[in-house]
Amino acid sequence: MSKHGLNSYISNTQALNANTVAKPTDKLHSIFGPQNHLSNNIDTSLFTSVPRVCRERKKNVFDNFTLYWENDTFGGTDSNYTNGIQLSWSTPYFANNQKDGHLPGWSYPIINRLPFVKKQTAQRALSLSLGSMMFTPEDTRTSELIEEDRPYAGYLYFGVGFNSILSNRKDTWQFNVGVVGPASLSQETQDFAHDLVGSPRAQGWDNQLQNEPAIEAVCETKWRVLYSQNHNGFGYDLIPHIGGRIGNVTIY
Fold first, then answer.
1. Record's Pfam families (predicted)?
2. Does the pLDDT of residue 239 top 50, yes or no?
3. Prediction pTM value
């Protein structure tokens, strides 16, 4: 082979290698996106697929965010469970292969032992959440203690979620640690929000539950049984779910 022919062969080979993209072992069709939440999360991601090459996986490990907000103002009330907000940050879903190292090493022993999530054929993801919940009694105009109604309470928490998806089913375990009481800053947060929109402040926050450490485990399963493709930015899906929670905050 001539020197010119050898150089041409090398150039073509390099171009071919540069344009070769590894195919994912499996494409994950998921409308679930990141994890879970206390309701347990209004997931907004419509489709998540396994990144195509290892370098892309490394770069995109933490680029999925979900923000949900629940507030009783949408129902024209301001009592009981009055506000909830959660920001979640999730990895993409990866095949169950610890050797790939796409998830933190400490997460695999946990995922591989959790009921439902430990399915070997499922895609896995890890999520982190920061959220708060607020509760007030029916009458927020009095500063007196109302013994026969729900007490004022705030809950601030940090959660780690372990998620798996197989076909149209998503399983999630989330473990939360946080604080109930004034340290949750629920009074300050609600006062700021009410001042911002011109609503009267709740007067009984001096009677809220006192500071107490909080810990809980949440398990949830969702099934995506119906989905409509987006048309001009609109679509719909049907996702029934079942779950439970245990800890010193809520049990059901």
1. LpxR
2. yes
3. 0.69
Q: Considering the domain boundaries, does residue 13 fall inside one?
A: no
| Measured CA distances, 76 to 79, 136, 205, 208 (Å) | 10, 15, 21, 23
Q: Does residue 6 sit within a domain?
A: no
Sign of CA dihedral 111, 23, 21, 60: negative
Q: Is residue 194 part of a domain?
A: yes
Residue 165 within a domain: yes
* Conformation bin of residue 9: beta by default, left when phi > 0, alpha when psi is -120 to 50: alpha
Eight-state DSSP code of residue 249: S
Query: Chain-wide mean pLDDT for the chain?
Result: 78
Q: How far is it, in rounded angstroms, from Cα 36 to Cα 172?
A: 7
Q: What phi-psi label fits residue 184: left (phi over 0), alpha (psi between -120 and 50 degrees) or beta?
A: alpha
> Quick one: how many helices (H) and strands (E) in the chain?
4, 10
Question: Looking at the chain, which runs of residues are DSSP E strands?
Answer: 64-71, 80-90, 94-95, 123-136, 153-166, 169-180, 212-223, 226-231, 234-238, 241-247
The phi, psi pair for 246, rounded to 5°, reads -140, 140
Helix (H, G, I), strand (E, B) or coil at 170: strand
pLDDT tens per residue across span 75-124: 666 668 888 999 999 988 888 666 666 788 888 899 999 999 998 889 99
Give the tens place of pLDDT for each residue, 154-172.
999 999 999 999 999 999 9
Does position 175 have pLDDT exceeding 90, yes or no? yes
Contact 251, 245 (CB under 8 A): yes
Q: How many domains does the chain have?
A: 1
The residue range of the domain holding 31 is 26-247
